[in-house]
Amino acid sequence: MKIVIAPDSFKESLSALEVADEIAAAFALHLPDAQFVKVPVADGGEGTVQSMVDATGGQIIHKTVTGPMGKPVNAHYGILGADSSFGENTAVIEMAAASGLHHVRAGERNPLLSSTHGTGELICDALDRGIRHIILGLGGSATNDAGAGMIQALGYRLLDSEGRELAPGGASLATLQCIDASGRHPALSECSFDVACDVDNPLCGERGASAIFGPQKGATQAMVQQLDAALAHFADTAIAQGFSDASQEAGAGAAGGMGFGVMTFLQGQLRPGVDIVMQAVGLAEKVAGADLVITGEGRIDGQTVFGKTPMGVLRVARQHQVPVIGIAGCLGDGAEKMLEQGMSAIFDIIPAASDLQQALANAKPNLHRAASNVAAVWCLGKRGC
């Protein structure tokens, strides 16, 4: 019997690999002769790097880079291993690792000044190591500069009317006169970018980066208007200099306009994060011939069907007509939508009323207990396990 275990992490308690290990151990008590294929996965958000590195036998690279407000921060990215369907020449970078909101204290957040420079430094480091395919996860950023800082770190020069380099941050883009690409990193012409993005906002306007995402990064209404105008000027200048017009493309406004930056200057292809991850870890090949797939995450609810990890795993398993069971830290409103999509059953792991701190602290034994019970029921259904 072949059982594929492909969970996301249980946030703040267990990594995706730890979840897979615990489920496999619990099932092995009832099915000692089964083949367990553990595939830690993610949906392109927090934890994606670790999950993909664990799934492919890759490595984590640590590097000190420029944080969103100009101070040094400790960041990391992953280089995928031999088990990746993309090969060993692929890096996976979460922009939040270098440019994330968590790097800036609440009182210090200022999207007029915050920069994606550190994300560009991570990309540059990967290129210098010979990487020629980069998976870039958007989201969780403290920035609203449309990737300007990123491309500056990669050798682009953004100049004002007097030929001076622009200061960091989205606000300074209002004074942009010229984009000089002559010094850009030479390896960019050889590198392809898959960009994990799960929003469809354009760069500017009522649904744009500044209006929708700016306030959570500390922008006042006046700042939103200032930033929106600055980003529009950035796009207009890029178009005038022969760069493609990506400002209205779905996802251009993601992560403070980072979607625009990677499409315009790196020719990045935006795709749902879960699709990129499933392809990278070769989930379809591993599910083929399986008797059961088990997936899960910290919470399964009505939003799970919109591109979260369990839904991505379910889509792959359905193609191979393999039943799927979901195990979650908790079930929220609308969790039954996963059953409507074809998941065979869903379970939570909390055995009794508890507060969040207790639930997180006891996640490992609770998961083991729940998975063991699921395995016992599965065996009853198989008659004779």
From TrEMBL:
TM spans (from-to): none
A single MF term (Gene Ontology): glycerate kinase activity
Pfam family for this entry, one: Gly_kinase
Keyword Transferase: yes
Superkingdom of origin: Bacteria
UniProt family annotation: Belongs to the glycerate kinase type-1 family.
Name listed for the protein in its UniProt record: Glycerate kinase
Organism expressing this protein natively: Shewanella mangrovi
